[in-house]
Specification:
The protein is of the alpha+beta class and 84 residues long. Helix content is 29%, strand content 25%. It has one domain (9-83). This is Halobacterial output domain-containing protein.
Length: 84
């Protein structure tokens, strides 16, 4: 499952939970909090602009509710999340 995500960190968190819930066939509120799998503040910091003003690029991955979540981002400001 691939989704383009807004750079807004809260939107990224919500999209991850919603995507996993869809794969699991459950209500997103029935899933454990995302912070059980990853520090939301650290995840948000990954999307922040650098001190020099340039966007960051790279990827991060973690497991949430048995699914591997990978977020890739580059200078386009359009992160892509993959949930396996």
């Amino acid at each position: 499952m691939n989704q383009s995500l807004a750079v807004d960190a809260d939107g990224v968190h919500e999209r991850i939970v919603t995507g996993v819930a869809a794969l699991e066939g459950v209500d997103p509120l029935s899933l454990p909090p995302l912070f059980d799998a990853v520090d939301p503040d650290a995840l948000a910091a990954l999307f922040a602009t650098t001190e020099s003003g340039s966007p960051r690029s790279g990827h991060v991955g973690f497991t949430y509710v048995g699914h591997q979540v990978t977020i890739e981002f580059d200078e386009t400001d359009t992160p892509v999340v993959t949930i396996d």
